């Protein structure tokens, strides 16, 4: 657990991590009694944690069913990509050269994605690729943006869960992540920004195709 946070905040962070990790999928119920037992917390604390996840757009209350992991809609997917373009392109355009620590974090995410792809663990491929993009936003060194983007990638993870063929959906992105990383290492920010822009265009197009109804 993370120190300095309330128990409700800590539980919300762990549940968000489960969403990013693909362990909680759209439509799954979050049963209060089960969470009380798992986290050894009061019902009020669990309700507060679930409320926080609802504020982050990750859960919704369904009458007669309770709280469930949220299924996103097409308009919300579009909005997520507006946010991605704003933050990721801004981070590339205005950040200084990569520090050794930043480069190592990105390389580690790419290595983890590569290993997951070799194992054909496509759920993990999606998760590690999102972590790479979290490190892109991290170039701005803004804790507020980092926290906000963690909520964004959790919602994106729910989008990717809608893909009927995870392998086909996730296969294109590793080489493109690697290209962006190498361009950043070379301090070629214009080319990195262009590669990221094309990446996001293609990712948005394929993501929207998962949601046929506007």
Describe it for me?
It is a single chain. By secondary structure, this protein is mainly alpha-helical. It has 2 domains: 7-69, Arc Repressor Mutant, subunit A (Orthogonal Bundle); 74-208, Four Helix Bundle (Hemerythrin (Met), subunit A), CATH 1.20.120.530. It has helices at residues 7-20, 32-39, 43-55, 74-94, 100-118, 122-138, 143-160, 166-170, 173-185, 189-208; strands spanning 59-62, 66-69. A two-stranded antiparallel sheet has the order 1-2.
Structural class: mainly alpha
The string of secondary-structure elements, in order, is HHHEEHHHHHHH
CATH architecture identity of the largest domain: Up-down Bundle
Task: Tell me the β content.
Answer: under 5%
How widely separated are the two ends? 40 Å
Which CATH first-tier class of the largest domain would you pick? Mainly Alpha
CATH topology of the largest domain: Four Helix Bundle (Hemerythrin (Met), subunit A)
Return residue spans where pLDDT drops below 50 for at least 5 consecutive residues: none
Helicity level: 55-70%
Question: Kindly state the mean pLDDT as a whole number?
Answer: 93
Strand order of the largest sheet: 1-2
Major beta sheet, specifics?
2 strands, antiparallel
**Number of E-state strands:** 2
Shape: globular
CATH-assigned homologous superfamily of the largest domain = GntR ligand-binding domain-like
Alpha plus pi helix count: 10
Over all CA atoms, what is the radius of gyration? 18 Å
What number of structural domains do the residues give?
Answer: 2
């Amino acid at each position: 657990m993370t120190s300095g946070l309330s128990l409700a905040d800590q539980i919300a962070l762990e549940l968000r991590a489960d969403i990013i990790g693909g362990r909680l999928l759209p439509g799954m119920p979050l049963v209060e009694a089960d969470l009380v037992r798992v986290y050894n917390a009061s019902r009020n604390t669990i309700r507060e944690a679930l409320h926080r996840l609802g504020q982050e757009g990750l859960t919704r209350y369904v009458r007669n069913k309770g709280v469930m992991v949220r299924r996103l809609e097409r308009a919300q997917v579009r909005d997520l990509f507006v946010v991605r373009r704003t933050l990721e392109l801004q981070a590339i355009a205005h950040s200084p050269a990569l520090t050794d620590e930043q480069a190592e974090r990105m390389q580690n995410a790419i290595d983890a994605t590569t290993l997951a792809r070799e194992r054909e663990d496509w759920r993990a491929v999606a998760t590690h690729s999102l972590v790479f993009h979290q490190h892109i936003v991290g170039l701005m060194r803004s804790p507020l943006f980092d926290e906000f983007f963690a909520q964004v990638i959790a919602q994106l993870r729910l989008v990717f869960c809608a893909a009927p063929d995870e392998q086909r959906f996730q296969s294109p992105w590793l080489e493109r992540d690697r290209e962006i990383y190498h361009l950043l290492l070379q301090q070629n920010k214009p080319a990195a920004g262009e590669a990221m822009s094309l990446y996001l265009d293609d990712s948005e197009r394929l993501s929207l195709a998962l949601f046929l109804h506007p």
